[in-house]
Design a protein that fits this description.
This protein is of the alpha+beta class. The protein has 2 domains: 2-87, no CATH class; 101-274. 54% of the residues lie in helices and 13% in strands. The chain is built from 8 helices and 7 strands, in the order βββββββαααααααα. The protein starts with a strand and ends in a 21-residue tail after the last helix. The relative contact order is 0.10. It is a multi-pass membrane protein.
Length: 295
């Protein structure tokens, strides 16, 4: 918002004060500036410098101005004359971006929950096709998380950008593997190497296990919920990896159970970032582990 600032107390009946515009991008910002008065195109013998404190009140949409005037030395005239040019320059403001983390967490949680129920044999048997999961993986788990990661880049959150973009890519790659049109599974069936197919999936899951473990290391000083989320996800990937390499359905089922736990932690963490005193009657604790040293 551009606010035209003009002194309310003038020295002399013909004194004029140049109106100056300043972008108030920070509600708590106090602007201090100086400018010189003129009278009928003729300078005062003792020029007056006006110093104003301007404070923006976001609740009432008003600007409070307090003015002080005092005689100045001749050496200050040049600085005062340059001030209007300085303040008239455009100021770059940072646009407000909503927190994309809840979207990414919700997309991750729902897709993980459905796939984990499939792996654990809960509601959906293990032998059933991944048709429903594939749709979620491509849309909500894949696209929504990838977009959340891009918005985290814009917000300057390196961890969130890396996590959401990577797991969005994970779900997209999962969808590619499951969609028959891409021919991933068909290539192994044609070569009569279904065992190699499971080993290939195991290698794929092993890579994500290593990645998730590294991301877990980056959460150790954040909060209990985030640390628990990546720890549980690491165990999930590890069990699923072992299940694919060994063709052990019990290991896959155990991975599904841990995946369900992971999904509920992600849902909780997402809800904790959505609810607040303005839109709900409660807030959810996330258990801070360590406070940042930066103030």
């Amino acid at each position: 918002m551009l606010c035209a600032a003009m002194a309310t107390v003038l020295q002399g009946p013909h004194a004029q004060i140049y109106p100056l515009e300043k972008t108030l991008s920070n509600p708590s910002l106090i602007l201090e500036y100086q400018f010189m008065t003129q009278s009928q195109g003729k300078r005062f013998a003792k020029p007056i410098i006006y110093k104003e404190n301007i404070q923006w009140n976001p609740e009432s949409w008003t600007v409070s101005i307090s003015t002080m005037s005092y005689p100045t030395q001749e050496r200050d005239l040049e600085r005062a004359s340059r001030l209007e040019d300085i303040l008239s320059r455009p100021i770059q403001t940072k646009s407000v971006v909503a927190n994309p983390a809840p979207l990414g967490l919700m997309g991750f949680a729902l897709t993980t929950f459905v796939l984990s129920c499939h792996n654990a044999g809960v509601i959906i048997p293990q032998s059933a096709p991944h048709t429903v999961v594939t749709g979620l993986a491509a849309g909500y788990g894949g696209l929504a998380q990838l977009l959340a990661g891009m918005w985290e880049f814009s917000a300057g959150n390196t961890f969130g950008a890396t996590a959401f973009s990577s797991y969005g890519a994970f779900w997209l790659s999962f969808a590619v593997i499951q969609i028959p049109a891409f021919g991933v599974r068909a290539a192994f069936v044609a070569s009569e190497s279904l065992v190699d197919y499971n080993e290939a999936l195991g290698l794929w899951l092993l890579g994500w296990t290593i990645f998730t473990f590294m991301m877990w290391l980056a959460t150790l000083r954040t909060n209990v919920c985030l640390t628990s989320l990546f720890f549980s996800l690491s165990i999930t990937f590890l069990l699923l990896t072992i299940g694919e390499f060994s063709l052990d359905k019990d290991m896959t089922k155990a991975g599904g159970i841990f995946g369900i736990i992971t999904a509920f932690i992600a849902w909780y963490l997402a809800l904790a970032q959505i609810v607040n005193k303005q839109n709900s009657f409660f807030e959810l604790p996330i258990g801070p582990v360590a406070r940042s040293d930066h103030k």
